[in-house]
Specification:
The chain is of the alpha+beta class. The protein is built from 4 helices and 4 strands.
């Protein structure tokens, strides 16, 4: 898997860096956690501070365009990101699953 940073932008009011990244792969499309691990390795980020907002596979190509945010601290991440992102990224548990 090849990771190429297309755009990197600082967003000081939200204490984060915003990235547009293209991931080139061979074979099957990588899963979200595989992409996140590749981004963590490439960016030198801490996994608990990195959020994948969107991952779009480019039609007819072995590429995924990823929009990711790297926060400076966990408190800001938990305050800024919407609940569905926090659930998807594993920062909070789903109440329905925890009851069973």
């Amino acid at each position: 898997m090849d990771v190429n940073v297309v755009l990197k932008k600082d967003n000081p009011p939200l204490s984060r860096r915003e990235f547009v990244i293209e991931v080139t792969f061979k074979g099957a499309t990588p899963k979200r956690d595989e992409i996140k691990n590749a981004l963590v390795a490439k960016l030198g980020a801490q996994p608990e501070l990195l959020v994948i907002k969107k991952a779009d596979q480019l039609t007819g190509r072995k590429k995924v365009r990823v929009f990711a945010y790297q926060y400076s601290d966990k408190e800001t991440l938990m305050r800024v990101e919407p609940p569905y992102i926090l659930k998807r990224e594993g920062f909070v548990q789903d109440e329905k699953k925890s009851e069973n």
